[in-house]
Amino acid sequence: MPVNRGYEHGGNLERAAEIFQKNREAFLDFSANINPLGIPDGLQELLVQSISRLTDYPDPEYKGLRRELAVYTGISAGRIIPGNGAAEIIALLFQTLKPKRVLIPAPTFVEYEQSAILAGAEIRHFELREAASFQPEIEELAAEMAQGVDCLMLCNPNNPTSSLLKPAELEYLIRQAGRCRTMVVIDEAFIELTEGSSANSMVKYVPACDNLFIVRAFTKIFAVPGLRLGYGIGNQDFIDRMRFRQQPWPVNNMAACAGEYLTKAREYLARTSAWLKGEKEWLYGRLGAIPGLKAFPPEANFILVKLLDGALDAGELHDRLGKRGILIRNAANFRYLNDRYFRVAVKDRASNLRLVEMLREELANY
Amino acid sequence: MPVNRGYEHGGNLERAAEIFQKNREAFLDFSANINPLGIPDGLQELLVQSISRLTDYPDPEYKGLRRELAVYTGISAGRIIPGNGAAEIIALLFQTLKPKRVLIPAPTFVEYEQSAILAGAEIRHFELREAASFQPEIEELAAEMAQGVDCLMLCNPNNPTSSLLKPAELEYLIRQAGRCRTMVVIDEAFIELTEGSSANSMVKYVPACDNLFIVRAFTKIFAVPGLRLGYGIGNQDFIDRMRFRQQPWPVNNMAACAGEYLTKAREYLARTSAWLKGEKEWLYGRLGAIPGLKAFPPEANFILVKLLDGALDAGELHDRLGKRGILIRNAANFRYLNDRYFRVAVKDRASNLRLVEMLREELANY
Prior knowledge:
The structure is a homodimer of 366-residue chains.
Chain A (H helix, E strand, L loop, with lengths): L12 H8 L7 E2 L13 H8 L12 H11 L6 E4 L1 H13 L3 E6 L4 H8 L3 E6 L10 H8 L5 E5 L11 H13 L3 E5 L24 E6 L12 E4 L2 H10 L7 H10 L3 H23 L4 E3 L6 E6 L6 H10 L2 E2 L1 E2 L10 E5 L3 H17 L1
Parallel strand pairs in A: 1-11, 3-4, 3-5, 5-6, 6-7
Antiparallel strand pairs in A: 2-8, 7-8, 9-10, 10-13, 12-13
Helix pairs in contact in A: 2-9, 3-9, 4-5, 4-8, 6-7, 10-12
């Protein structure tokens, strides 16, 4: 049976249903880091209306969507490229840039490495150390970058560590990168799910920095992983080259309509911030208080956790919780992590309580 | 303003609305070759239901969709790869095969050439001659293929000529291709819109021919260009390699649900055949009877037409009809064609009548 790369990621309810012999609906899914507020009000109605547009080809220029994204991000439409999820933007970015060497701080989202390798790049990893809460030493990272690297690939906030680089640190890296002709790519898939939200974004630096490219997604913030909608922001020449390589109609009409609508969901973003601020700290505190667990301080809507007791590993914990209808992300397949680590999303209070109780039971029982 | 490749294709209502200063809805669109029966019964309701699936990631294996496609095509699911429209399948095919030389009979759909070039291939064209009704001399094509060609790319029925190669001719080509280790790719995007429908398909040859790959689409037959759903059928090793290169979630949940449903729309396919049989011949006859026009015999739901009188060219005709709310496809940008050629879709009788009347008027007025 052929298997594509999605198999290795969180949120694979099909697979969980198979393994644990349950309906997809039976799971509380902490393995995918999706906004638990559900889809924004009005999106359902809008999508129903958009069905009438199925008999037309999408606009190959996606003018409407790009216009709304320009308003949402404060960047001109010519610097914006929509895509079939952030995954398409990342793949297309590497296919267009064709970097010889890509530097990737890790542990991080595995798609960067896989997409870069498929585009012919050699990968250099920069280890994010647990002792430093997975924060890179910026000068050290800049020095590594100066060693003949064409592209520095950052995930900010970083998945799975939930750590965040501040604009001043990123500004320094981008400036240093400019000196050695390195493209800095920042995947901001979770940026609206940090405290401060888009204030942590480097989008506003794009007009002044030709060597900066930002990847964004609707998936996490608007709870629409089934929609497949992402976008890239960069210098106009490079965006034009990407658009030339891209297939003519990468985003379907329903996703394009949804995207136009979601950029205006300001009230939803405010509710998200209000929920996240309290809930993230609450869950972090509760997880850290469970004997045998260490939680790393989260900057986004997910938390990396370490199993301190050597006996129970993340795979076993995943299986035990799965049987009880709770899905966590075993983080063993992230580079520099191992079977002592797992990742959980921050969900609503009732779900988070249930997770905490089950974890407490499993660790006590062991 | 960055423009992607979709700009050059038919069905660009956004562009037409801009040029002719009309609403999209004001046009009778003969420029896109879409089934005029509209979307099948029940699809609207099914899509409304599928909205609830947006908060889940798609199944990265697309098991449900592949299972239904296996029933629809009679080929095992392991030989089937779904994609974000046939356009993604074609691009991914060339990126995976990495052919050095691709032989493309032309005039044909321009995406083959563009995707193959982006994957690093050199293109050889094989001219389809108007005098032979755009049918290739098969022995001659096979001889050309034997000259160090890695891949023969066919469109069957061919767009824009509406000509069709018969299974016996294709079987011969595939056998010859096997001897010189050439992959034969057949884009069957319009196969269900030929008389005989899937009886003209080469899908059934796939299990016995490792060097055969078929591209299929939902777009034309089910009137869903806004959905973006296509698939490829080939030998399992090659399909696995394509799936490995493909992004994890290429098809959104609504498109995947729609695809599962549409493979069972047998009654719709029967109605389509009944409409097409009569209407295609009717329109062909009427177009051919207009002084100054020559229509080429259509095997699919579209007709290539030549302007015999040297004064009015296809660009001008396109503009004159556009002002009156009728869109045709100026075929001047197809290789080996020029501004004497245009293409029209076969639509419902009332629309076709209007097209014929308008064409008659424009040619008489000139």
